Amino acid sequence: MLYELFIGLRYTRAKRRNHFISFISLISMLGIALGVAALIVVLSVMNGFQQELRARILGVASHVLVTGPDNSLAGWEAVAERVKREPDVVAAAPYINAQGMLANEANVRGAIVRGVVPQMEDQVADIGKHMLTGSLDQLRAGEFGIVLGSELARALRVGPGDRVTLIAPQGLVTPAGLVPRLKQFRVVGLFEVGMFEYDSGLALVNLEDAQRLYQMGQNVSGVRLKLEDLFKSRDVAASLYRNLGPDIYVSDWTRSHANFFRAVQIEKNVMFIILTLIVAVAAFNIVATLVMVVTDKQSDIAILRTLGASPGSIMGVFVVQGALIGVIGTVLGVILGVLLAVNIDVVVPFLERLLNVQFLSKEVYYISELPSDLQRRDVVTIALVSLVLAFLATLYPSWRASRVRPAEALRYE
Q1: 266 and 246 share a domain?
Q2: N or C, fewer C-beta in 10 Å, the chain?
């Protein structure tokens, strides 16, 4: 064993008069462990929120949208066959996207009306998995059934089996003037995806019924695509834009819902910077600890120098001592953080029962449980940042130790 490592390890342990210094070292270890654990848990929860938000949004929206000019696309079957040739496209389904007003007695609400083919819609969206009552298969052509979001149905005060009137913005010109086009629909199902935007403002009808109501003939608004890897949406959209021609518009979820995910990513980065300061404060404690150790061990340093130890060796002794504090604190923090992040679904309910509080109330928040997504990349990054900060904290005290002059240190011994 190198003598620098041996002496550094000896100095880390308490000896007679330096119990206070050892206590400071323990506090530094715990500070680093706390900072590392907090970083891992917070970033895992942020990843979980991002994943949950993405799942809820993209469960209703689409990875990629292929549309025509003026919200009208002719010959959607040929377009769907063409886009399915892309290697990353899993499924494609036509849709009609239009605005309408739903009325039930005195209750009136505006909504986005989406015409879908039920069998194909299940391949590109997850609304079928979030049905409270009924199913998308009940949207049969010619029967004028409608599936409403739970909040929209609550606002209209309707349930399965009730009838609502759908008023289209396109009107009929008659001798008496412009008469709005309207049609009664029967509620055949309710869904709840957990996003207020969709639960309170989205209604699904059969594609053929939507074509009749909005006088679109055989045209649709566009084709919705589901990808094998949603993070390749930009590449797929760019490829389709080049291959489908200038009259076809292609957009992906990173453009249509960029603000949601950008906000979560910015918040995650800011939280990483803020919580890294906890580790930095603990690293400053390492500086204070090593400065006191150097002052306390001046005579020992002088003796080592007279025995032939070089300034670099003296510096190495105290680098070992400071680095050991950082390594132990980082390892403890990683273990604690990983355990908490993996068991967050157990820890949070336990704290809620213990403190008799609810951190995320269902009446206030769309996501009422703390999700967690532990990623190896985050853990490795946090551990490396902690070790680097701990190493940097050892440099100045170690340099001070290497500058001790034996004659001056031993003058009064």
Answers
A1: no
A2: N
